[in-house]
Design goal:
By secondary structure, the protein is an alpha/beta fold. The chain has eight helices and six strands, in the order βαβαβαβαβαβααα.
Length: 200
């Protein structure tokens, strides 16, 4: 990344899931004087070859993200990453399924949510010690004061309207999902690297 003209690209795959946390990062970086481009992941990734070289901040370490990284590095960019989807997972076996074995070679830095995750990256995925920083996760930051004001306001409004409640997430990747059917979901899992269709 050019020190004279730094730029950070922050792709967002899903507005509902990622945007608030990515805006928190963008605001912090912009306050430090770095230009930030934040937008739809497909548009940013598709245009990496024509965008001025900078630091591309990707949301994961799976096979799909490794493909984006390869394209970005080939176009002269550097890579920073955070595994947002590993945020609430502590089981090393589950975490490893979402970390492509080839990913370490493309990353300048990975922001790990905790020390367990950091050790997994170093010991089992070939990251160097200086490549992995434990920073927590901005999604968690949004749940703490003073940043939780917006969420707390929404929660209080819902509780005022409906009374006490328990929220049950009734859609998962495999059940009641945006993918439509289980076969398509399995193909997505194979693309990401979670599933080997040749392994019974």
């Amino acid at each position: 990344m050019s020190v004279a003209n730094p730029v950070l690209y922050i792709p967002v795959e899903s507005q509902n899931r990622e945007l608030d946390a990515k805006l928190l990062i963008a605001a912090s970086v912009a306050a430090a004087g770095v230009k930030v481009v934040i937008g739809w992941q497909r548009a940013i990734v598709a245009n990496l070859v024509v965008l001025p070289p900078g630091l591309v901040f990707l949301k994961g370490l799976n096979k799909i993200q490794t493909t984006h990284m390869r394209r970005a590095v080939g176009a002269g960019h550097q890579i920073a990453a955070i595994d947002e989807e590993g945020f609430a997972i502590a089981d090393p076996e589950c975490l490893l399924k979402d970390i492509d074995p080839e990913v370490a070679q493309y990353c300048e830095v990975v922001y790990a949510p905790n020390e367990i995750y950091r050790r997994i990256l170093i010991e089992q995925r070939g990251f160097r010690d200086e490549q992995v920083l434990v920073t927590g996760n901005p999604r968690g930051d949004l749940a703490r004061a003073p940043l939780n004001r917006m969420l707390r306001g929404e929660a209080e409004a819902l509780a005022g309207k409906y009374g006490p409640m328990v929220l049950v997430n009734s859609n998962t990747c495999a059940v009641n999902s945006v993918w439509g059917d289980l076969d398509r979901y399995f193909r997505v899992c194979a693309d990401i690297g979670w599933l080997d269709p040749d392994d019974p």
